[in-house]
Amino acid sequence: MNDRFPDATPEELNTSDATCIMCRKEMTTAKKIICGHLFHVHCLRSWLERQHTCPTCRALVVQLENGTTAVGGQQGSQSYAHQHAELKFQDIINSPSLDAASRKIDNLAEKKELDSTLVLMITKAWSAAKDSNMAKDEVRNFG
Predict the structure, then answer these.
(1) C-alpha angle with apex 91: 86 to 96, nearest 5 degrees?
(2) Contacts of 26 by beta carbon, 8 Å cutoff, 6+ apart
(3) Rounded percentage of the chain residues whose pLDDT exceeds 90
(4) Which of these, 77, 51, 54, lies nearest to 5 by C-alpha position?
(5) What is the spatial distance between Cα 37 and Cα 20, in angstroms, rounded to a whole number?
(6) Residue 27 has pLDDT above 90, yes or no
(7) What percent of the chain has pLDDT over 70?
(8) pLDDT tens-digit map of 73-120
(9) Residue 134's pLDDT band (cuts 50, 70, 90)
(10) What is the 3-state secondary structure (H, E, C) of the chain?
(11) Phi and psi dihedrals of 15, rounded to 5?
């Protein structure tokens, strides 16, 4: 963690709100992630054990050697393939529109990067969204 993210400079701490958004405590030292946001090292470590995005802007936070974005060094029961699929899924979900998400899925399909884990994630999300829309329609029709 210490090598992966640079320390925030005193200038960066002074020019930004020096409050960690995770614990709401003032930062006298902090780590700076790719998007430029600052966090206590222990808060960031705890966050990255569960997420791979910035807690403020949801940007993916670590670049791998091959240029893809992922959390490096994360340990646990998830395999690398599952983590990689999760990163792609989050990129799709965070698309600004349904058309943009569809283009990302099409692009992955063209590059033959749609594996079964990613397809399952997309299918579950689509099903949940569909159920949510059906529930809204039922409520609308009820009233």
Answers:
(1) 150
(2) 18, 19, 20
(3) 20
(4) 54
(5) 10
(6) yes
(7) 75
(8) 333 334 566 777 888 888 888 888 888 888 999 988 888 888 888 888
(9) low
(10) CCCCCCECCHHHHHHCCCECCCCCCECCCCEECCCCCEECHHHHHHHHCCCCECCCCCCECCECCCCCECCCCCCCCCCHHHHHHHHHHHHHHCCCCHHHHHHHHHHHHHCCCCCHHHHHHHHHHHHHHHHHHHHHHHHHHHC
(11) -85, -15
For residue 135, what pLDDT is reported?
53
Residue with tokens 């090292």: 41
Place of tokens 């698309």: 95
Partnered with residue 63 across adjacent β-strands are: 69
Q: Which two tokens stand for residue 118?
A: 């990613």
Query: Is the Cβ–Cβ distance between 93 and 118 less than 8 Å?
Result: no
Give the span between the Cα atoms of 25 and 4, in whole angstroms.
23
Structure tokens at 19: 């409050």
Asked whether 31 and 14 are in contact (CB, 8 A), the reply is no
Determine if residue 59 is left, alpha or beta; phi over 0 gives left, psi from -120 to 50 gives alpha, anything else beta: beta
51 and 78 Cβ atoms separated by less than 8 Å:
no
Give the chain's length: 143
